[in-house]
Amino acid sequence: MNAATLLTRLYPPAVRERWGEDISHEVSASGIRSWPDTLAGAARLWLHPGDWPESFTGQTRRVLTVALFALAAATGLLLRSAEPSSTLTADVHHPATSLWLAPILLGICLAAPLPPLRGDVLRPLASAAVRTLAAPTAAFLAMCLTAWSGAAEHVTGVADTAMVLCYWFTLGFAAFRLCTLVAHVARTAALPTTRRLSTALLLIGAGLTLAASQNLLAAVRTVPHPSSVVETLALSVLAAAAISVGHDVMRTRA
Fold it and tell me: What is the pTM of this model?
C-alpha cells in the first residue's frame, strides 16, 4: 500500500467513494509536500459531516454512529492507561469524581442502533456477534488465566515487556472488534435520528470536557505528572472533536 492510498483511506467513507481516486491521484502527483494538507483535509472533513456526500440514505448517520462508538472506545483505552486515578473514577461510591461518566453513558445509549426485535434479524446478528467477538474473548480468557495462574508475577525483562504489549494489544483488538460489531448492527438496525446523534455527541463531548476539567483542577492543586498532562490534553482534543461534530450535525439538521 503506497502513501497516497493510505492517506486517502483517512477520509470519511462517503468522501472516499466520491472523490477517492482524485485525492489519491493528486497526492501521488504532488508527493510528500501534499501530505500535511491531505491530513488536514481529512481531519477537517471528519469534523464537518454536513459536507459529506451520501451514496445512500442514512450513510452519514451510520458512519457517525460507528465513529461515536470508536470515540468511546478510544476514551476507555486512554483512561485505562492512566489507572489507578483518584481524579477520574467510575465508582458509585465516589460520585464526585465519577460524574464525568454519566453524560458519556447517556450519549452512548442515545446513539445505539436498535435492531428490530424479530427472529429473522436477531439470529444473524447473534451469529455475527459470536464470530466478531470470539477472538477477543479467547484472548481475554487467556490473559485472565495467565494472571490467575500467578505466572505473570515471576516474569521479568523482555518477557514482562511482551506481556504488557500483549495486554494492550488485547484491549485494542477488543475495542476494534466491538466497533466492527456496531458497524455490522448499524447495517440492519434503526439508526439514531440526526437529533439524537447530535445530542449524543454533545453529551459525550460534555463528559470528556468534565473529565479534562477534573484533571486540570487536580493538576493545579498539586505538581502535575507528565502522564496526567498528556491525558488532559488528549481528553480535551477528544472533547473538542465530539462537540464540533455534534454542532455540525445540529447545524445540518437545522
Answer: 0.88
